[in-house]
Amino acid sequence: MSVAIIDYGSGNLHSAAKAFERAARSFENPDKVIVTRDPDAVFRADRIVLPGVGAFADCRKGLDSVDGMIEAMTEAVRVKARPFFGICVGMQLMATHGKENVTTDGLNWIGGDVEKIAPRDESLKIPHMGWNTLDVVREHPVLERLPLGPKGRHAYFVHSYHLNATNEADVLARADYGGPVTAMVGKDTAIGTQFHPEKSQRFGLALIANFLKWKP
Amino acid sequence: MILFPAIDLKNGQCVRLEQGDMARATVFNLDPAAQAQSFAAQGFEYLHVVDLDGAFAGKPMNAQAVEAMLKVIKMPVQLGGGIRDLATVEAWLAKGITRVIIGTAAVRDPAFVKEAAAKFPGRVAVGLDARDGKVAVEGWAETSTVTALEIAQRFEDAGVAAIIFTDIARDGLLKGLNLEATIALADSISIPVIASGGLASIEDIKAMLSPRAKKLAGAIAGRALYDGRVDPAAALELIRSARGV
Q: Which of A16, A146, A157, B203 has the fewest CB atoms within 10 Å, i.e. is most exposed?
């Protein structure tokens, strides 16, 4: 089995690849993790990971600039039903639009827009940088046996925007940062995290391992 | 084989589309319940219903019309369009639908189909729409490079009752069923396959009854029944005599 991490010039690819390789090593037959900008390799992969850091519009532009990548991803995930993991802006790209400075079209896999977070408490800074616990909104195979909730493990966030999903059923988990922040979404065979599992230590690795085990 | 008369619902009315295009809908009957009753009176034994608005919206949109039909007929009904979660499957089955047809979700969310089929064995069918053998999703607005067979194979041994294989290029155009592609699919999987799209004349019924089509479980007839190209009595008589009863 292979995991393709999409290289489109806007990911923290190295740490993502390392985390997926580490999580894969916990299995008897570790998945082969590849970092690639080849749409065919993405189309053929058993699992697909879309990382992303920076501004929504820049990430979208980066993805568009790799010829055939969006088509390959979309077919692999939305027709071949390959499991997909979007990380941070990679997750935000699953939305209908990004509203970071300008309105940009997302992939529209998950209805909703990416909007600026607005913590009620003014002492809470934007960007939101740091560790938060997660509240599960909907049970999901990738969340199985993870210590979540107020006394659970923490996930690492760095962001100023979040995906405000239209359908509550598409939200898997939220964090509290002066109000609810979408931490994780999931629909069909795709999931996405606003936080960085690759920087969330043991919790992040356990989540990635669940993703690698998931057979939707 | 079973000949399924089709009722496509749009805004509470019975319509037929051409090649799945919502803009090319012809209203055939304002009263779906009356249409269902008329099919029952003609001797059909299993009704095929599609909630077209539901297919586009991703959730049931013509529930009232469906319930009105269920009230007035006794024959089993299979229903598709906008069925994308287990709660919707359960609700329809509880309302008296014999089997639900899952389309887009069967492509995007195979785990859901497997779960539904395991929970309701024999009551979940998969609708696969193809253009040149390649699967199309989301109310047919998008086509892919993935073959219908590839998707169908996911559901082998999952307890899926049938695969309804529609050739979009022919649907509503009365060019005849795409039997070659449908038989090829039926020969490659163990799930019963129902042919759909383009049934135009009694010749299609005869072809369905020929030995090479013996693996096909049935065919869906739409426009040809509404405009009189296929005489229900003659078609049903042909099928009955082929059954040898």
A: B203
